[in-house]
Design brief:
It is built from twelve helices and nine strands. It is an alpha+beta fold. The chain folds into two domains: 10-173, no CATH class; 185-315, no CATH class. The chain is elongated.
């Protein structure tokens, strides 16, 4: 890591995506991103679950008719005099095929400093287009435009690929800057900010980097008065095979400490059980209560910095 700022803006990233042909392990894309910022190690932190969305329209020979099924439908409906039956007859006569985009989101991270929030995250979609169905099912024609676009009873066909896979740039998030912005709109500390602050003052920060295990998902939602609210959640990258914490019922002292130590060893850093607990993943909140009772009594197996974090959580619990 260098003192030079990280250089890759949205336009550059979009251009790289446009001119890079996807390979199986995404090494070519990674090498191009790395070449532009040799001072900052860039790595693929997570490949998201497969998703799909509406695609475009092709004919029976796979020739492109439209890139966007919704836009084509709305435009052609107007051209058909806003007569649904005319639109249906046209689509059936041409034997048009609706396609779908199948993809995964790739999450790349670049650590820019020692603190939990000091990383940049680049989200890139990797998609390929497949034939999905006949645009109109002759036996169950649509009753309105909404059903034309997304039918309840589609007439499926034998699937074939259309074109090649491609990358498309989704977003770049400078997490430290983004969290500063989020915090302006929250009266109390945002749970994700508190998670990062707790990481920075715990023993986890001494041994690990947050972005090795956790990434962010910025999103918008609508408030009760119709306002657009920017928010963020933390996602575990699931790179390590960390099992569910064993049942802690009745355990205290050395047996409980052994469970925590085993979990932390499998996660790869100390005090990991606390952060998985706050995420509501693999570790029950009962564990935090049991450990606090232990260290408030006869047992002392947590470093002081972790005791302080746990005590604050007991006083004011939170989750992400």
């Amino acid at each position: 890591m260098t003192d030079q700022p990280f250089r890759l803006d949205g336009q550059q990233l979009a251009k790289i995506c446009k001119h890079t042909l996807p390979d199986q392990d995404d090494e070519l894309l990674l090498s191009k991103l790395q070449a532009l910022n040799p001072g900052y190690p860039i790595r693929l932190a997570k490949t998201g679950e497969e998703w799909y969305r509406l695609g475009g329209i092709v004919d029976m020979d796979g020739k492109r008719i439209a890139n966007n099924l919704i836009e084509w439908t709305e435009r052609t409906y107007i051209e058909c005099g806003k007569n649904l039956q005319t639109l249906i007859d046209h689509a059936r006569e041409q034997q048009f095929i609706a396609t779908r985009q199948i993809g995964n989101t790739l999450y790349f991270v670049i650590q820019t400093g020692a603190k939990a929030e000091q990383f940049i995250q680049i989200d890139i979609d990797k998609t390929h287009e497949m034939s999905d169905r006949l645009l109109v099912n002759g036996d169950y024609p649509p009753e309105d435009l909404e059903e034309f676009i997304d039918p309840l009873d589609p007439e499926c066909i034998e699937t074939f690929g259309i074109g090649t896979s491609r990358y498309s740039y989704r977003r770049k998030t400078d997490v430290a800057v983004f969290m500063d912005e989020i915090n302006k709109y929250h009266v109390s500390e945002h749970p994700v900010q508190r998670f990062m602050d707790d990481w920075n003052r715990s023993s986890a920060q001494q041994k690990a980097v947050l972005s090795d295990d956790w990434i962010v998902r910025p999103f918008r939602h609508t408030g009760r008065f119709g306002e657009q609210i920017i928010n963020v959640e933390l996602i575990n990258t699931l790179q390590k095979n960390v099992p569910q914490m064993e049942d802690i019922s009745g355990k205290k002292g050395t047996p409980l400490h052994n469970l925590l130590t085993r979990f932390d060893r499998q996660a790869g850093y100390p005090f990991a059980w606390f952060f998985y607990m706050v995420k509501g993943k693999l570790v029950s909140p009962n564990c935090g209560v049991a450990v606090y009772k232990d260290i408030s009594g006869d047992f002392s197996y947590l470093p002081e910095r972790d005791v302080a974090v746990l005590k604050d959580w007991i006083d004011t619990p939170y989750s992400v």
